[in-house]
Specification:
single chain; alpha/beta; two-stranded parallel sheet; two-stranded parallel ribbon; 3 helices; 18% helix; globular
């Protein structure tokens, strides 16, 4: 959805998404390996995961909620494959999260794993 909004504003964007869930990205969830997690797109979205970002070092990497419930390695793997210089992150960040005041939600947020946040900082 966000990619379609950016395209409507003439932003030159290449969007990627994983259509099926992989436990290697977050084993702390009740989503099954191979389960379809993305079925509706609002613009052209290429199929691909973290390995795809390595092809676009001349572009800015934009990540939105890559780590389901704030756990997993999807965001971190994207960062490891990315060779560019510009990073835009949309989502919660430690100390500014729903989890800061809500029981049962991680204090580092639901968008990015704590490992990812520490690597970026």
């Amino acid at each position: 959805y966000w990619a379609s909004l950016l395209k409507q504003r003439s932003v030159d964007i290449v969007a990627f998404d994983e259509k099926h869930f992989h436990l290697s990205f977050n084993s702390q969830t009740d989503i099954s390996e191979g389960q379809e997690i993305s079925s509706k797109y609002f613009c052209d979205v290429k199929q691909g995961g973290p390995e795809s970002v390595g092809q676009y070092e001349d572009r800015t990497l934009l990540l939105m909620w890559p780590d389901y419930m704030g756990f997993g390695a999807y965001g971190l793997q994207c960062l490891q494959h990315y060779k560019g210089q510009k990073l835009i992150l949309i989502g919660e960040w430690k100390n500014s999260t729903f989890g800061s005041y809500s029981k049962g939600v991680s204090e580092h947020g639901q968008s990015f794993s704590l490992e990812f946040q520490n690597k970026v900082e």
